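Hi there,

I know you've been waiting on this one. I reran it after we fixed the sequence typo, so this is the corrected version. Both the input and the resulting structure follow.
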Amino acid sequence: MPGQRSIAEAERLAAARLGGIPVRHDQMAVVANIYRAASAVRQHLENSVLRGVDLTWTAFVVLWVIWIWGESETRHVAEEAGISKGTLTGVARTLESRGLVQRADHPTDGRLVLLSLTDEGEQLMQRLFPAFNEEESFVTGQLSDADCQTVAEGLRRVVLQVEENGEKRRQDLLGGAAPAPRRSGRRKA
């Protein structure tokens, strides 16, 4: 489990800290547990099945996206993987140096780059994914098949809410202004 405190301890501390602040506790618990679950699952998979083939979570997700979608423009791979184009550049270079991914110029737009799996990348995913899926089964081991379907459907609805309504909500919250640029958290010198 990531961190030194248990989920029960984190929940107890949050409840104590929030005291009388009017918040929607059930919704807070859903979002907090999405984050906790994602972190725990990612860490488990990186430290088990992915470590054996020397892949990070991000590298695996990039391979997965290309494996599922086939040859794709880098901007689409980055978007599907949930990473920046800059992060994808570094990951793709590493995967290319390992012979798992190849780059090609776009046939009609020289500014664009396409990524595809090499034969070695295809073989790796064919071998790796069954072991990855075994670990997906392990981490959901306390859920029944019906529970898995319910959780998956609930999470799909969370994603759809953000995809379909998130931009309008952001504009409403910011009064139509563009969001401030992201900062690294470092202080100005």
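Quick highlight: The chain is about 65% helix and 5% strand.

Best,
R. S.
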